[in-house]
Amino acid sequence: MRRIYILAIALLCALPSVMAQQTISYEGADETVRLWDNTTAKYSNYETRDEAWNNKRKTSMKQTSSCELYIFKAKPEKNTGIAVAIYPGGGYTRLNLNVSMAKWYAENGITAAIVKYRTPNFGHTEAIMEDAAGAVRYLRTRTDLGIDPAKIGVTGSSAGGHLSAWVSNAMADDEKPAFAIPIYPWIDLTISSSNTEGKALFQTLGKDYTIQDAADLSLHTKVGPTTPPTLIFLCHDDSIVLSLSSTKYYEALARHGVKASMHIFPRGGHSMKLHIEEQRAATLDWLNWLGLLK
User: Fold this and answer.
1) pTM of the entire structure?
2) CA-to-CA distance for 272 and 184, rounded, in angstroms?
3) Can you give the CATH number for the domain in which 217 is found?
4) pLDDT, tens digit, 9 for 90 and up, residues 172-190
């Protein structure tokens, strides 16, 4: 009896620290919307540590256990009705918030929402998809921002590119985004080419993952006729994620008759910094080609 009593006291003493788990928010957006956390969402990533900033500028997060949208509103005089969910990259271990991308979209009449999603925490991938798909569904409700529910797209770099392709194929056909723009995306998880990718595999699939687990989340095999139109950007000399990963996805898109375009720059590595103006111009041109800017 005494042992049970001591155990109960120990649990009660531990409870405040669990309940006091700290979350953080980016403060530079026009609006912040909290969708849920591990206690209110359907799925959990079972992260028990406090959320924390990964840099002094407070644009990179780690140990995320809640889902929020950081919304950058389209300029009213330029509003196109388009909205885009931006999934941060970071190898599924951290979230590198691409604030400059969000601001650029807003300046060009496109509402942008950076998605703070829950990292998989060694295999809890259900929480990622719940957050990524939930962001698309939420943006469709924001007609008050001039958003056309039929013009919701997704984008992201690296792991965020993987997530944008994942959403493009995992959601039901009547819910899929109108377009996707993966940027140097991690597509084929079976061809890990760097230590960075190796760490991301452990984080995403768990420490005991199998080659079949990696194949199941390799998205070039998931493409079908209802995959949304897709624009891909990458650099040939990327040493973090092989360009072959993206070309496999493009080949699958073409084979299934999906509207697609791919820009491969000769150099630049795992980044678009050398080609940012070309990338932005090509993005607007492609959205116009799809008829979304009209």
Assistant:
1) 0.91
2) 9
3) 3.40.50.1820
4) 999 999 999 999 999 999 8
